[in-house]
Amino acid sequence: MSPDPTAHVVSLVDRTPSITGAEIVAALVPPRQFVEASLENYRPDADFPSQQEAVEAVRGFDGASAGAARRGFFRRRPESPAVLPGLYLDGGFGVGKTHLLAALFNRSTGRRYFGTFIEYTALVGAVGYAGAAAQLKGASLVCIDEFELDDPGDTMMMTRLLGDLADDGTRVAATSNTPPNALGEGRFAAADFLREIQGLSDRFRTLRIDGNDYRRREVEAHARVVDDVDAAVASGDGPGSVDSFDAVVAHLSTVHPSRYVKLVDGLAAVGLRDVRPLASQTDALRFVAFVDRLYDAQIRVVSSGTPLDSVFGDEMLAGGYRKKYLRAVSRLVALTSI
User: Fold this and answer.
1) Cα–Cα distance between 254 and 251 in angstroms, integer?
2) Sheet holding 112-116: strands in order across?
3) Which GO terms describe its biological process (predicted)?
4) pTM of the complete model
5) pLDDT tens digit sequence for 46-92
6) Among 190, 199, 249, 257, which is disulfide-ready with 90 (CB 3.0 to 4.6 Å)?
7) Which domains does the chain have, with CATH numbers?
8) CB 155 within 8 A of CB 125
C-alpha cells in the first residue's frame, strides 16, 4: 500500500502552544537563514556605496566599542563616533540590515542575544520587567531587529531596559525598516528612532543603508497562488498545515504573539485556503507578527484566493502601520516562492 501523502498534514487551529520566559531567552539567536551570516558573505551592491559603508561600520563597532560600552551609555560621550556603544542601521526592506546585524552577533563574543523588538517585549510580558532585566543582565551584546516606533508604551519600556543593560556594560545594535520610494518618509526614521529612545540617543551611531529589496530582485513581484492548497502542501517535503485563511486569522486572536513561534514549530509549509483582504487592522497586525515568525523559520507558504501581498488594503497601507505591512508583503513574496 502506498503511503498517504496527507498523513503529515496538520491544522494550525488545533495547536494551542505555550512558552516560558526561559524558552524565549533560549530562542534569542539569529533566524536559521542567518546562522552563517558574516561580513564576508554579505554582498554589497556597488550601485549603493552605503552598503559597503555599513559593512565597515559593523566591523568597527565590533572591534572598537567594547571599551566604550564599559563606560556606559549615560557617561561622557566619546569623541569618536566609531566607539559609540550603540549602532542603528536605518534603511528600506531587503537591503541586508538583518544580515549585518546577525554578522555582528556571529563575530562577537561573550553572552549575547539577538531578537526582534516583539520578542523582547514578549519576554517582558512573560516574566515581567525585573525578570527580563535579570535574564539579560551581563550580556556583552543585545541585537534588536525591527525596532518598532509605533507603540509608545513598548518603546519607552524598551528604552528603560536598554538603559539599564547599557549601564552595566552591554552594547546595543538595532535595525528598523523604512519603506523604499515612499516620498521621503523613510528619511525620518533615524530621527524618529533617536527621539523615541531619548536618553540613549547620543550613544548611537546611526547609518542609512540604501538599496533595492533583494527579495523582490530574486523572485516574482507578487506572491504566488495555487489552485489546490491541500495537494501542494501534501506533495512537499516534511510536515505542513492546511487551514482556511479566515480560520487562521481567527485562531491568531486566541494565541499570544509570543507563542506564534511555537505555533509553527516543526512545519515545513503552511497552507492557507481562500485568502481574502483583511478588514480589521487588529487582525492585520496579528498576521504581520505571524508572517515574521514564518519568515524567521523560512517556512514555505502555499495559498489560494487573493495573492498574499494584496491582503493589506490601500487604507491600511496609507496608515500609521504602513512600514509593518510593507515588510510583511516583502516577506510573503519571498515565502510563497520557496
Assistant:
1) 5
2) 112-116, 141-145, 171-177, 86-91, 204-209
3) cell division
4) 0.77
5) 999 999 999 999 999 976 544 444 444 444 444 444 457 899 898 87
6) 190
7) 9-19+216-335 (3.40.50), 31-212 (3.40.50.300)
8) no
